[in-house]
Specification:
The complex is a heterotrimer of chains A (368), B (367) and C (287).
Chain A: E1 6-16, E2 29-40, E3 45-49, H1 56-63, E4 71-76, E5 79-80, H2 81-86, H3 95-101, E6 102-105, H4 109-112, H5 119-130, H6 136-149, H7 155-159, H8 168-180, E7 186-190, H9 198-215, E8 218-223, H10 226-235, E9 239-244, E10 247-253, H11 254-259, H12 264-272, H13 313-317, E11 323-326, E12 329-331
Parallel strand pairs in A: 3-8, 3-9, 6-7, 7-8
Antiparallel strand pairs in A: 1-2, 1-4, 4-5, 9-10, 10-12, 11-12
Helix pairs in contact in A: 5-8, 8-9, 9-10
Chain B: H1 11-14, E1 19-32, E2 35-48, E3 52-56, H2 63-70, E4 79-86, E5 94-95, H3 101-111, E6 112-115, H4 119-122, H5 129-139, H6 144-157, H7 162-166, H8 175-187, E7 193-197, H9 205-222, E8 225-230, H10 233-237, E9 242-247, E10 250-256, H11 257-263, H12 267-274, H13 314-318, E11 323-327, E12 330-333, H14 337-343, H15 349-355
Parallel strand pairs in B: 3-8, 3-9, 6-7, 7-8
Antiparallel strand pairs in B: 1-2, 1-4, 4-5, 9-10, 10-12, 11-12
Helix pairs in contact in B: 5-6
Chain C: H1 2-18, H2 52-88, H3 90-105, H4 108-119, H5 124-131, H6 135-151, H7 154-161, H8 166-203, H9 214-225, H10 234-262, H11 264-270, H12 275-278
Helix pairs in contact in C: 1-10, 2-3, 2-5, 2-6, 2-8, 2-10, 3-6, 6-8, 7-8, 8-9, 8-10, 9-10, 10-11
The chains are: A alpha/beta (368), B alpha/beta (367), C mainly alpha (287).
Chain lengths: 368, 367, 287
């Protein structure tokens, strides 16, 4: 088996809050990504799902080499990306090549395009940089070809416009074209459809799937919406990764995750995703607390224990490691380990019945 | 009612049993350099006491304008015409458009309260949350102590820690907490009606769903009527008793939620239902809606949906469809609504169709 | 409207120089003639008989040189410092901004006065540069904060992701979007030069042997003709003031006019097609 396209190993990205001149003591650290290992293959689609603040965007940017990890390694076809950039050791794949193969589509189409440049110029820029041998005419043909491919015809009319003359959906398609023009190996779509109207989202996702096949690109799709993630991952045979407070709690093939979620948090996400059935009983959320804990002060042990309906005392002490349930499907939860002390451990009882903020630490729980 | 021949804006089609707000012929017009922009077009709507009404439409369909019109809060230089009547319990009906500034101020927040899109900008960043409550209470000459204890109760109902939230500044709270605090603030003067414009737009799904849950509990506990405006149909479908669909500044369909979800009569509604990924459905074809919504200055004559409609005929191009009754309290503005079900089948039904005979009847759908 | 203002204000300058007017020398006409009295001297003469109109006109090229020198110097330094500091960040930013802060805190006018007295500059270009020796620092600060916010735009990150080099990003992504601020500050700097130079001449810190300058004219009027006290001679003070005001105003309109140049939304409203005009216009609602 060949090297995976991108291999993340025990990656950590910790941000330190900057301190003023007169603040003493250790600065607050946000562990945006805390020990994640993940492989992304060629022509793979990985959807990262989770609430805001879980670190999925940071993980995505780390995977495409825009964010330097504070620990762990990021490898592109075996070559450590940051070693290549710093020119350390034997560099087999030059950083330039890596940079070209890893691209991004942003969430907000409004700020993704330089408002002072025409679409034509915006799209010719990558070609000028990476294919300087193309003549002006060839360049133009390629740009127009791509515009028509995404449904923006007549191409020369669209190409002579400025970004503010396009709708949100059109701007997003231009951003997609821009990243594809470099023939990348991996594109990070960072909440790329969240800013579009609901009726446009499916269209955009279909387009991405279509182009993914045609250009043989991998996608890392970051989303807080499980149904969008599922649509994209399932249609392309990819996987869904569920993140919580900087850690991957469950990873597996799309349909498997949806039909057979194992981690309690995945089940919560599924509950939260609207579907069109009318006769659903309106139970409350299957979490003990509605709000996410403070990322600067994550709970000890398993980070989900403060909200998990299945949590027991053992969960406050130990962070579960990944268990493989079936090929490609991994979960980090004691529920899957038959002989863990979890099963002997008493259940956690909350002090009062309020479901407010979940930023109490283990010490505040009375295990009775 | 269901055997009635279609009449023009017959009052019977809009009447609910016990309306708390009645809108008739509401129209909002802006004079612009490039023409007259009609951003709300002859809307007739009743809001039933104690219900949760969901108003659904794309961005730019006029749904926010509808909410503003309910409170006579249309921004200048827009001109609102028509009538909006508010019927509080035990008091005389109030003609909202005839109120003067002072009375209007009392109406808003004390009787009909509104939560706007984007909680962050509704809060003053230099004032603590408690100050916001105090300021609101004082501005309406309410007893501050009673008000604050009511505020605490509301905050607790919304799964917030009252002391912690009251003692914080808005920026110290997360987005979800801010939104819930804003909902509490809008309920502190005990209004009858709560109008919410995309209250969960920027929030995580989990928070969105939780807030919807909480809203339903609040409705039951405090006897509220709610109007929930959004572009996200699946989101509000769980919560709403009735759904009203807006397109191009008009109401195109209205009816009980269950009926709309199963047998929507307007082609646009059906297309909208098809366009959203459904986590329970098989991965069958989801369809995007071709075309785009019209510019308010250039709304097509006749039915405003005809350029994008698969069953449009010449009649549709010339004649604006009247509101017709599909059944009971399900109304639609479409010339050919009987054919809509065939023309725009739901994603899940295509499987039925293939196995059934010829497709003349659909597996699900109205009778 | 902006375009018209821009054209008109620049035309005004051109007209000034083209109008053929004699050099003002003593005893051209009757001393102290009121404006409009003598058709040969439309704006009157000063106490030495020099024609006011020609005085104003001949001062103009010098003034313009001074203004341009000062404003261009200021803007170039401020933009370079502010942009590099804002985009690069890190130590570069700290060093450059500290430099700016120090420059800002040195009192401007006294510094200029000291330099002027020490160096006794004659060339208007040099005078212009000296006058604005400090002004760049405040502008660098505002440009720095602008660049900081521009840098956060997604399209800058997109360019970086595409491997486009820093100089190119600064040139294509940052600077064009910075131009409105640069231009506003250019006008501000120009006006500073006008007023400060006029003040310096008026106060007598700059000697004016044979130099034509509006401030000089005002100084002469004040000193020699007691223009403030003597209503007959007040015109001598007012006449040179007029070009100062007009030039300032012209510069402001110029800045507004250039908004058209740098703001793509304004550009396309007049020139290119907009989306709405493109699509087939449907029939308007018939009610």
């Amino acid at each position: 088996m060949s090297e995976p396209l991108i291999s993340l190993e025990d990656v950590e990205v910790h941000f330190e809050a900057s301190q003023g001149l007169f603040e003493f003591g250790a600065p607050d650290v946000v562990r945006a990504v805390d020990g994640i290992s993940l492989d992304i293959e060629e022509r793979d689609v990985v959807a990262l799902v989770g609430e805001s603040g879980c670190g999925k965007t940071t993980l995505g940017k780390t995977a495409i080499g825009l964010q330097r990890p504070t620990a762990g390694s990021v490898r592109y076809r075996g070559q450590d990306v940051w070693d290549a950039k710093d020119d350390v050791g034997d560099v087999e794949i030059p950083h330039e090549e890596i940079r070209r193969s890893l691209q991004i589509i942003h969430q907000d189409p409004g700020s993704a395009l330089n408002p002072n440049r025409r679409i034509r110029k915006i799209l010719e820029a990558p070609l000028k940089k990476w294919q300087p041998q193309l003549s002006a005419g060839d360049r133009r043909r390629e740009v127009y070809g791509m515009l028509e491919r995404v449904g923006m015809a007549p191409a020369d009319d669209y190409a002579s416009r400025y970004p503010h003359q396009l709708s949100g959906g059109e701007k997003q398609r231009v951003a997609l074209v821009r990243s594809l023009l470099m023939d990348p190996d991996l594109i990070l779509a960072d909440e790329a459809i969240s800013a579009l109207d609901v009726s446009l989202r499916v269209e955009m996702m279909d387009l991405m799937l279509d182009l993914q096949e045609q250009f043989d690109t991998s996608f890392v799709f970051v989303s807080h919406d499980l149904s969008n993630a599922r649509y994209l991952a399932a249609h392309s045979g990819g996987k869904i990764g569920v993140m919580y407070l900087g850690q991957l709690v469950e990873v597996g093939p799309a349909e498997e995750i949806i039909r057979n979620p194992k981690h309690p948090y995945t089940k919560v996400l599924k509950w939260a995703t609207p579907d069109l059935r009318v006769d659903k009983e309106s139970e409350g959320p299957p979490v003990r607390k509605v709000d996410i804990p403070d990322p600067e002060n994550p709970p000890a042990g398993c980070r989900f224990h403060t909200r998990c309906p299945e949590a027991r005392e053992a969960c406050t002490r130990e962070n579960p490691s990944k268990i493989t349930i079936s090929p490609g499907h991994e979960v980090a939860c004691f529920l899957e380990v038959d002989d863990h002390e979890y099963w002997e451990s008493p259940e956690l009882v909350d002090n009062d019945d309020d479901r407010s903020t979940g930023d109490t630490t283990a010490a505040e729980f009375s295990a009775d | 009612m269901s055997s009635q021949t279609p009449t023009t804006h017959g009052d019977e089609l809009y009447l609910t049993d016990d309306p708390i707000i009645e809108m008739r012929d509401a129209e909002v017009v802006f004079e612009m350099d490039r023409g007259v922009s009609r951003v709300l077009d002859n809307v007739n709507l009743d809001v039933e006491r104690g219900e949760i009404l969901g108003i659904v439409g794309e961005s730019g369909s006029g749904k926010s304008m509808l909410a503003s019109a309910m409170l006579d809060a249309v921004v200048d230089p827009g001109v609102l015409s028509g009538s909006v009547t508010y019927r509080p319990e035990g008091r005389d009906p109030v003609d909202v458009l005839e109120l003067d500034k002072r009375e209007l101020k009392r109406l808003r927040w004390e009787d009909i309260s509104m939560v706007f899109q984007g909680a962050m900008s509704s809060f003053n960043p230099t004032m603590g949350v408690r100050e916001h409550f105090v300021e609101t209470l004082e501005a309406h000459d309410a007893d501050v102590d009673v008000g604050l204890s009511r505020a605490r109760e509301l905050l607790a109902d919304l799964y917030l820690e009252p002391d912690r939230v009251l003692g914080s500044y808005p920026h110290e709270l997360s987005g979800g907490m801010q939104q819930r605090a804003l909902i509490a603030l809008s309920l502190v003067l005990e209004p009858d009606v709560l109008v919410m414009d995309e209250p969960t737009a920027a929030l995580d799904l989990l928070m969105q769903r939780s807030i919807l849950n909480l809203l339903e509990k609040l409705r039951d506990k405090y006897d509220l009527t709610m109007v929930f405006i959004t572009h996200d149909l699946p989101l509000v479908a769980e919560l709403a008793d009735r759904l009203a669909v807006m397109y191009a500044f008009e109401l195109v369909e209205i009816g009980p939620t269950a009926e709309i979800l199963e047998s929507a009569a307007h082609p646009y509604t059906r297309a909208l239902l098809n366009a959203t990924p459904n986590i329970e459905a098989d991965l069958s074809e989801m369809r995007a809606i071709e075309g785009s919504a019209p510019d308010p200055v250039d709304v097509p004559a006749g039915c405003s949906y005809h350029p994008r409609c698969p069953i449009a005929t010449d009649n549709c191009i010339d004649v604006d469809p009247e509101y017709r009754s599909v059944s009971g309290d399900h109304g639609v503005a479409c010339h050919h609504y009987e054919e809509a079900a065939d023309a725009v089948p739901f994603a899940g039904e295509r499987i039925n169709e293939a196995s059934a005979d010829g497709g003349a009847t659909i597996g699900k759908g109205g009778d | 409207m902006g375009l018209i203002a821009w054209i008109s204000s620049s035309n005004w300058w051109i007209v000034e120089r083209i109008v053929l007017v004699e050099q003002p020398i003593s005893n051209q006409g009757e001393p102290r003639t009121q404006p409009l009295e003598d058709p040969n001297h439309l704006l009157g003469t000063d106490m030495n008989g020099r024609d006011m109109l020609s005085g104003v006109v001949h001062a103009t090229p010098t003034m313009i040189q001074m203004i341009l020198a000062g404003a261009v110097f200021t803007i170039i330094v401020a933009t370079i410092v502010g942009t590099v500091a804002g985009y690069k960040g890190g130590r570069t930013e700290t060093v450059l901004m500290t430099l700016s802060d120090v420059a800002m805190t040195i009192p401007g006018l006294p510094l200029v006065i000291v330099l002027v007295v020490l160096l006794e500059p004659q060339s208007p270009v040099l005078i212009g540069v000296i006058i604005t020796i400090n002004v760049w620092a405040g502008i660098a600060r505002t440009i720095h904060s602008q660049v900081l916010s521009l840098r956060e735009n997604s399209y800058v990150e997109a360019s970086r992701t595409m491997g486009i080099g820093t100089p190119s990003i600064i040139q294509k992504d940052i600077l064009p979007n910075l131009m409105p601020y640069v231009l506003v500050n250019f006008v501000y700097a120009s006006r500073r030069v006008i007023y400060d130079s006029v003040a310096l001449y008026f106060l007598g810190f700059l000697s004016f042997r044979g130099v034509e300058n509006w401030g000089v004219m005002m100084n002469l009027a004040y000193e020699n003709a007691s223009a403030l006290l003597n209503p007959d001679a007040t015109y001598m003070l007012i006449v040179p003031m007029i070009p100062i005001v007009v030039l300032s105003f012209g510069l402001m309109l110029f800045a507004q006019g250039t908004d058209r140049l740098f703001n793509p939304r304004v550009r396309t409203r007049h020139g290119g097609k907009t989306k709405i005009e493109d699509e087939d216009a449907a029939k308007p609602v018939v009610q």
